[in-house]
Structure formats: C-alpha cells, structure tokens
Write a structure and sequence with these properties.
By secondary structure, the protein is mainly beta. It is built from two helices and twelve strands. Strands 1-2-3-7-6-5-4 form a seven-stranded antiparallel beta sheet, with helices on both faces. A three-stranded antiparallel beta sheet has the order 10-11-12, with no helix packed on it. Strands 8-9 form a two-stranded antiparallel sheet. It is elongated.
C-alpha cells in the first residue's frame, strides 16, 4: 500500500517483455509539482528473478541512459527484502528534473517507486510521504489442490492448474523442449 494525494491512474498495459507481467500507476500532483509513478513487475509463468543484484544493475543501466548527475545510490532492506535507492538529475534535451527512485525486490516481484520534480526542487513533504508510506502487505494464500497435467501423464498438488510451457531459444523460436508449470499469480512463483 502507498499514500498519494489522490487516486492514481493505471497506465495502459505496456507490452511486457518476455517473462514479465507489469502494472504501472501514475499521478501528477500539480499542487506540489511532482510526478509519481509506481510499477509492479512480476515474473511470468516459468520465469524467475535471477538475483537481486542483477535486477538492480539492470535498473541502474536504464536510469544511466537519462542520468545527468547521480545524487544517491544506496542499498538497504525493507523488512527482509532488498531495496535500491537511486536518486539522480535527469536530462532530456534541455529539460532537467530531479528523480528519486526506490526499487524493492520481493522474491519474483519488484516494486518501483518514482518521484520526479523540477531540477532544483527539494524532496518535499509530498515526496517524503509517498516513499515513507510504502508498505508490503502479506500475499493472499493460494488454494492448493490436486491438478492433472494437460496430457494426463501425472497429477500433483499445486496452487494452480498445470500447463505445458514450450521452451524457446535466444531468437524466440520454440525448441521442441517443454516443461510443466503451475503458476501462483498471487506470489509470482512458478512450480516446474
């Protein structure tokens, strides 16, 4: 959960990268001159987050394409989950803005919090409330039951129906190899 001055808009579904499911919400606070964004990104069925530091490095590389000046890069935990704070001055053309970001990794799900304000803007109270109000709530529990594979070769006790997942090569072509996957969308965990 998170506090914003008003209800955010869910941005149109973006084209998800292979293996990712994303939802993005944003709000422009004209009174405080701040743009807020929150993105929840989960691995899709059959995929796993390949290490927190790898994910943080990928996120940093994205920010570096816009970076004019790095202000803060630090790492800490929110409860038991790793967090990267990355604050920087962004430059696009002649426009500059101050960005504060937090990336929180929770298993196979990542939360990105972003606030953008004018270049010389202070980290004002609205921004502090946004970041300080973020809380991870417990996942709802999946209902586990006996599920049969689509081809009838086996059954197992899983949180969702078992599906066949075709493996692909680097070019996105099916290889003929496959695995059986039961995907718990509540916690973004695949059981293969």
């Amino acid at each position: 959960s998170i506090l914003l001055p008003n209800t955010p808009e869910q941005m149109p579904n973006e084209a998800d990268e292979e293996g990712w499911i994303s939802k993005t919400y944003s709000y422009l606070d004209a009174k405080n001159n701040v743009y807020f964004m929150m993105r929840v990104r989960s691995t899709g069925p059959g995929y796993y987050l390949n290490g927190d530091s790898n994910y943080f490095d990928t996120q940093k590389q994205t920010w570096k394409t816009m970076l004019k000046e790095l202000k803060t890069e630090k790492y800490f935990n929110l409860g038991e989950f790793p967090v990267m704070q990355y604050d920087f001055v962004m430059e696009k053309g002649k426009e500059k803005a101050m960005c504060r970001t937090l990336t929180i990794n929770r298993g196979n799900r990542s939360y990105l919090l972003l606030a953008v304000t004018e270049k010389d803007g202070e980290i004002n109270d609205a921004i502090k409330v946004f970041f300080n109000s973020f809380q991870l709530i417990d996942y709802k529990k999946a209902y586990w039951s006996t599920q049969q594979s689509p081809d009838g070769h086996f059954s197992g006790y899983t949180p969702a129906p078992v599906k066949i997942s075709m493996k692909k090569d680097e070019d996105g072509n099916e290889t003929g190899l496959y695995s059986y996957v039961s995907y718990d969308s509540l916690s973004a965990v695949s059981f293969e």
